[in-house]
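The pair is quoted verbatim as follows:
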Amino acid sequence: MGAAAVIALAEVRQKKQQAEFRRQLHARLDHWLDALEEEMKTPKPTLEELTRAIWERRQELTGSLTTALLEQRYDAEHAQRRAPCPQCGRLVAARAVVSRTVETLVGEVEVDRPYFYCVPCGHGFTPLDTALGLAEGRKQFDLQRAAAKLTAEVPYETARALFGDLTGLPLGTERLHTLTNAVAAGLGVLDVAPTRRELEAQVAAVAAGRRQRPILVLAIDGAQVPTRPDTARGRRPGRKKQRAKRARWQGQWREAKGFRCYLLDDDRIVHLLSWHQIQSDEEVFAALQQVKDAGLIPEDQVRLCVVADGAPWIWNGVARLFPTAREILDYYHCSQHVHTVAELQYGTEAGLALEWVEATMARLFTGEVDGVLWSLQRLRPAAAPAAAAIDKLLAYLRQHQHRLHYGAQRRAGYPLSSGGIESANKFICHTRLKRSGAWWYVANSNHMLALRCAKYNGTFERVFDRYRQTLLAKSQQKNVKK
């Protein structure tokens, strides 16, 4: 038989196999339609009744089709009769075909795979599981990804209800807790940050058509979040014991410190990256050091400015890491200090207080910092509290004197306030962590903050893939002799 005849025979065989496969798919669809018709209570249902019936049975169809596709695409693996043992390398004969049911977003999928057992090693294995990238448990990675996205947005109980409504599969709040913490375990700032290439592309897009380099704002701040001590852990006791146990620990509001980098693009901001954790001052700047070392703040391509309140730890760290950045004291924090003096100095004379505040802030805006300092020194205090507030404001303005030229900063296009980081505090920290009755363990709150940073940094899929690869690597290590 010639080569052409052999090729033609192979093509005929392949077409027959494809035709048989499509016949099987049609048979599965017909079976599903028969079941759907039997379930319909009326021959002429409303659109809502019809869509509800299809929605409730949708996964029976999609799961069945997925099972058929797996059988067709992995027919060689299904027919495998010998495989090398992952531990000793000895060729092992297949013992039996073992069926496994897994849950996915498209429904339950039946996986029939050959099972191999190496007697000398006492080790059983199924190569098809590795080829398919199956998770060890019943819930597969697409379900886990969807669940983690939900828990990063809404409370666990709400996520449980939504997950059931959207997927038709149950997933308890305890499992959601465990999954969320597992996905976020060990995440650092570079794990949730975009790549250098991605950030440079955003900078280039904003810089297009401009004469000057775009302004990149680094804003640093903290947000108070509710926490509970680790001593509150333990099994759930009865109601009386539960109340007694709760009385033994006290919730504490702690500061989730972080930073946000964004570009100014006319009247909008372009988010680059955020990182928030319940952490020390040193840990904040250690994370910023990693960001800088990774080239994620391209100082040679932007005009870098730092906006923050008057906290000394912030400005000390900024001076060390970004000595050439333009420093701006948040206008509204400065205004609050001025208002405090006005209230204590003028008391019930609200008109005089407002006039003095507006005049003082106007002079600061126009760069008359020395004049404001001179006026404060000559201001006669109305009482001892006013005198203390004046001295405090004098020290505050002297400390930040080079950060107060608001008019010049505005004309150069720089921001005067820390609204960018305040909004990040809200949509990253407050929206998820500040819930009625919620008191977080510090580790769990940091896990949640890391996931929310990944979401807004556009890196959630990369973070989840890291989690998936870690689990698959652990599963493979179990099959390899240590």
Q: What stands out?
A: The two ends are 52 Å apart (CA to CA).
